[in-house]
Amino acid sequence: MENGPLQSYRSMVADGHIRPDPAQLLAAGKLELLANRLAQYDAPAKSDFFSFFGGKRGEVPEGLYMFGGVGRGKTMLMDLFFEDVPFAPKRRVHFHEFMAEVHELIARFRSLHEGDPIPATAQAIVSEARLLCFDELHVTDIADAMILGRLFKGLFEAGLVMVATSNLQPGELYKDGLNRPLFEPFIEILEDRMDVLQLEAAADYRLEKLQGAQLYFTPAGKKSAKAMRETFTRLTGYKKGRPATLKVKSREIAIPETAMGVALFDFDDLCGQPLGAHDYLVIAHAYHILMIENVPVMKPEHRNQARRFVNLIDTLYDAGVRLVLSAQAQPDALYAIGDGAELFERTASRLIEMRSKDYLARARPGAAPDGAG
What we know:
44% of the residues lie in helices and 17% in strands. It has 14 helices and 11 strands. It has a 6-stranded mixed beta sheet with strand order 6-11-10-9-8-7, with helices on both faces. It has a 5-stranded parallel beta sheet with strand order 2-3-4-1-5. Helix 1 (5-14) packs antiparallel against helix 2 (22-40), helix 4 crosses helix 5 (118-128) and helix 6 runs parallel beside helix 7. The two termini are 28 Å apart.
């Protein structure tokens, strides 16, 4: 197809935005084939939902499951595919966010109806999207593990097509988890319905872009704003950023601009709003790199913003998220006086550590030995 993911990948290489990589080229080719098949695929209408749990399925295109180490380009490739594929309805979502929505749907159906809520939950999902692109598919929660097999059996039977990135090959998911035999049907479904591709590359490209680069700009202002914009452009491979939303229970968090696993915020977006630790955790799970502009020097009357900033940095640090930031002053001067100022000393220390080579190179907790994402 014209202007498909393979052509987009080749254009990025030709323009010098990324280096050529054989493993990435192979993955781009597989995504191109899937895009071509989707162009010929007539997904079942909502009324064709009779096939759930045992019905006959049509010729549903085989999805793609890409796994590998940190910074190998999995998210970049999936985003190229999602942007280029002319198929609707489609949705790109972080797997952690998706499962939170699933549990909300299950609770809602249980409150209204007796019986098994899984078929109705699956129907609600496919009514919104026939193509699902998952970033960072991993399973650590037993509540997720126990329902995934039945849920995805229903989704695939209904004609869902899926593309996913993960740290782990399917057989390693939820390894040593409680009641893992009940999870194994999900592994079998992934291996049966998806092309599983290991994406190994010679380098961690995301780390290469960050190491040696300036990650903390001060003072905040026009010069820093220009530098932050240039950094965003370079980190995203010159892809155009777009606004997005993350769902947290019944609420939505607005993401001002995101592309290729990088999200750009203003300080007020994150700390001037009534966001809590769980909100920050959802954001940390959704993006590999966070960029935050215009962090002010906070005074005693800004204690709420300072407290949120402490919670935010703690969450990003624990999750291994990489941070680029523009601020009005150096970390130790951002909140020197006021309630909780003594706790801010740790935050200042972490802001310095998060620029170090050791921090940038470390994987997210819970990732495979060779890294995440």
